[in-house]
């Protein structure tokens, strides 16, 4: 838009000398602070070349694009991103003119703010200014910032598993508390909407799973899972507002094509603490060997999002499948379980635990993402909780004690339940019939209450 205020603004169209600066300083955050806008889901929209994009306005003035959960710092950044998807040649998005808030252009709200603060702009200029002064530079700066941030997070989060078994997956939720918008709902996309790999896609985009029946295939293996496995991984997932991870031990019977999952091994390590993770993995590996079990999969949690795999989870799972397959003669499946304890869309207090497996993309489309498949499991009710599991629970309580992201169990989770009630209800369906160790469980619960 050249050096001026853009075509159509005319002489003095930015409110006289110095007006341009004030005008540029009007951000969404300023409009929110002055109550001209209110935060909300789906209040922002862009229409461009026949496509519609919806966005949520956060209280801090950032925009969450509903389709992928990506976060943008300004209308320009979001508009540019969306328009480029439709028209790759598009250089800038002209955010204030093209993003609408509840159906009205944002420019109108900016003009209203300026009028309220006596910085008059001829209304014609306000309405048709294609870009505020400096918006182009602002865009470039933002893009650079975003790239830098993306670079940092890609480095932090790259998963470098040891040769032995799956490495500890690093996770998006492992952000210092307070830095994360806990209730940011990531809207899942359908696999068929993904197309081939695109580095611009947010790796935390969630993908809906596909059933084998839907593609006229049979599940290539059977799964039986012990209630104790689900009990322990559900317990682990409830303890912290960050993502947790662990491994699954069991047996693979090549003749009956049956994968039996018998034991969960929680990783007691902070995501991103590589040394601790390595030590933990050694310990788990020894545990597996001692019990005569094989590594048959892994689990992790999405504390506040749906129990669906992200693009990053799909890649990790493909990686694990190949690695486990290579270690045994012939095919050995690797199962992934996702647990979602605090997602607001769950029907009740019970966590959603979903198994998935990844089917490689068709050979003629090698650059596509793997296809996340829904896995059917037979559920085997254990007769009792073993000392092993109680011991693990104690170690976990000890490990998370005093952590900043520890869930506060005595606080209310809903109108009628505390977080501790919610945990107990979720575990109830996975608890063995014989409650011989009920008193020990109560001990664990009282520790949780004190610790948090």
From TrEMBL:
GO terms for molecular function: metal ion binding; metallopeptidase activity. CDD domains: MPN_2A_DUB. Pfam families: JAB (PF01398), RAMA (PF18755). It comes from the Eukaryota. Residues 133-148 have a biased composition (Acidic residues). The keyword Nucleotidyltransferase does not apply. The keyword Zinc applies. Residues 123-180 are annotated as: Disordered. GO terms for biological process: proteolysis. Belongs to the peptidase M67 family. Probable protease. Acts as a sensor of N(6)-methyladenosine methylation on DNA (m6A): recognizes and binds m6A DNA, leading to its degradation. Binds only double strand DNA (dsDNA) in a sequence-independent manner. This is MPN domain-containing protein.
């Amino acid at each position: 838009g050249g050096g001026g205020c853009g075509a159509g603004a005319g002489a003095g169209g930015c409110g006289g000398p110095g007006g341009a600066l004030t005008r540029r300083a009007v951000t969404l955050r300023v409009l929110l602070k002055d109550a001209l806008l209110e935060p909300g889901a789906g209040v922002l929209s862009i229409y461009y070349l026949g496509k519609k994009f919806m966005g949520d306005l956060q209280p801090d003035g950032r925009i969450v694009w509903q389709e992928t959960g990506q976060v943008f710092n300004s209308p320009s950044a979001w508009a540019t991103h969306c328009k480029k998807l439709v028209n790759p040649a598009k250089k800038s998005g002209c955010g204030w003119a093209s993003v609408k808030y509840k159906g009205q252009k944002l420019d109108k709200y900016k003009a209203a703010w300026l009028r309220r603060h006596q910085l008059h702009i001829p209304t014609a200029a306000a309405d048709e200014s294609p870009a505020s002064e400096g918006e182009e530079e602002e865009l470039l700066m933002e893009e650079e910032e975003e790239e830098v941030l993306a670079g940092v997070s890609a480095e932090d989060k790259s998963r470098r598993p040891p040769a032995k078994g799956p490495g500890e997956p690093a996770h998006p939720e492992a952000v210092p508390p307070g830095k994360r918008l806990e209730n940011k709902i990531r809207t899942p996309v359908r696999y068929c909407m993904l197309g081939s790999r695109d580095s611009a896609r947010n790796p935390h985009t969630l993908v809906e799973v596909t059933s084998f029946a839907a593609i006229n295939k049979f599940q290539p293996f059977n799964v039986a899972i012990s209630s104790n496995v689900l009990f322990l991984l559900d317990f682990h997932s409830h303890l912290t507002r960050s993502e947790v991870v662990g491994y699954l031990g069991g047996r693979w019977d090549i003749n009956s094509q049956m994968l039996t999952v018998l034991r969960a091994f929680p990783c007691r390590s902070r995501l991103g603490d590589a040394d601790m993770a390595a030590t933990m993995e050694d310990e788990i590996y020894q545990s597996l060997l001692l019990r005569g079990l094989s590594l048959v999969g892994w689990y992790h949690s999405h504390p506040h999002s749906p129990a669906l795999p992200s693009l990053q989870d799909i890649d990790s799972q493909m990686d694990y499948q190949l690695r486990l397959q290579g270690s045994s003669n012939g095919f050995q499946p690797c199962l992934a379980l996702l647990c979602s304890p605090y997602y607001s869309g769950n029907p009740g207090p019970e966590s959603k635990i979903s198994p998935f497996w990844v089917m490689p993309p068709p050979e003629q489309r090698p650059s596509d993402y793997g296809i996340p498949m829904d896995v059917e499991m037979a559920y085997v009710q254990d007769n009792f909780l073993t000392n092993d599991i109680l011991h693990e629970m104690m170690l976990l309580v000890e490990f998370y004690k005093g952590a900043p992201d520890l869930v506060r169990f005595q606080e209310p989770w809903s109108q009628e339940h505390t977080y501790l009630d919610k945990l107990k209800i979720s575990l109830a369906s996975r608890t063995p019939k014989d409650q011989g160790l009920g008193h020990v469980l109560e001990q664990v619960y009282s520790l949780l209450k004190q610790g948090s």
